[in-house]
Amino acid sequence: MTPRRIALGAVLLSIVAALVGLLVGRSIESPADAALGAKAPPSGPITVPIERRVLSADLRIRGTLGATDSTEVTLAPSTIGSPDNVVVRAPAQGDTVNEGDVILVVGNRPVIALVGDLPMYRDLGPGDLGDDVRLIEEALGRLGYFTMTADDTYDADTAAAVEKLYQGRGFAPIGAPAEVTEEIGRLTGEADAAAKERDVAALRRAQASLKAARTKAGARLPANEVVLAPRLPARVAKAAVKRGSRIDGAVMTLGSEVAQIRSSVAEADRTLVKPKQIAQVELTDTGDRFSATVVSVASEPGTNGAGPERYAVTLAPTDAPANSFGADVTITLRVRSTDGKVLVVPAAALSLGGDGATRVEVVKPVDGQAGNDPAEDSAVSAQEAATVKVKPGLTAGGLVEVTPAEKDALKAGDEVVVGTADGTPTSTPVGGATGSSPDDGADANRG
Predict the structure, then answer these.
(1) Staple 180 to which of 69, 165, 176, 301, CB 3.0 to 4.6 Å?
(2) DSSP per residue, 3-25
(3) 109-115 and 226-229: which strand pairing?
(4) Smallest Cα–Cα separation from 194: which of 185, 203, 186?
């Protein structure tokens, strides 16, 4: 092939490539150009069906499950008890404590719960006098260890009963101190010697002294091994120590077996809560649910543990789960409800007409007429909007009870307009129509 022909072929090939590129470029459209040339879709209404249901407004508040009263348990100092303060056995929250139970073991020594309206504040032993002695004897009598009439004197009968109390729980009682034991031994020897020598006067003196010494013998009660609680049985509302820890302050809080829930409400919600009202309660941690009854609502703010601007509410739980004392709970109170099923619509469906009446816009299917644009025909012409005047009722959870001004103008399943596809409002919304119900308010979740 000659050079002239090669050059001519190259020119023709370039011309063909240019024509092909021109044709392809005209047939390709960029995304931006396509978007600019696209026709906006028709903006049809957004609708939701009318429902027929019971509508209720709930008040939700936080609270704490506990006891009707509580006693903080501390161990009194002792000069005769064990100085060890390491916890060997500890209680668990929710444990039931009965009179005579060993509620704690510290340094292999027991801490025993008894009923009494005075705290244990001193060591007790033979010869001691006081009201606290009477309380101990009364407790020992209830447990079957003390058969005498309770008085304020710690004598040999008291010591014998204390010894049985300890032995019945597998522990050795604290006995007389060494100096008392030594004195009894010495006086016993003197009495024996006087008897052998037939020294009547010396024998009488030794026997009298021995009798006095023996009144100091017998089991003693260390102050750090007994807890006096106002009433038992009780529950461990809070366990402040665990196995291996050292005693430093309170060891536990005992609450009565009668449980209660403590909560509070704001002033705006106080009139919504009434005694004997039934509430549903949910444990925050586990989700367990049970019911409760309102016992009281405070008439003054800041009382019974409530904040300065809140009113205390007390409820009595029914069948609260075991070991749930001290747990945080959520309380739901039904404060208002419709009388049976009613028609409800979203609050966004309500609007205010020029005449001041509340209305909804209902879209119903109709036989459409074809226009110039088939796409618009399929989106718009198959439905027709009608305005229906309504009387709004209870508002709760974003829904509103509605009653049509004309009977049978609305029914469940009808579609009401709540907006448009492009976000344009379909009408003027009703001022306050979507106002908060008690369960939507600022106080809804405050305890």
Answers:
(1) 176
(2) HHHHHHHHHHHHHHHHHHHHHHH
(3) parallel
(4) 203
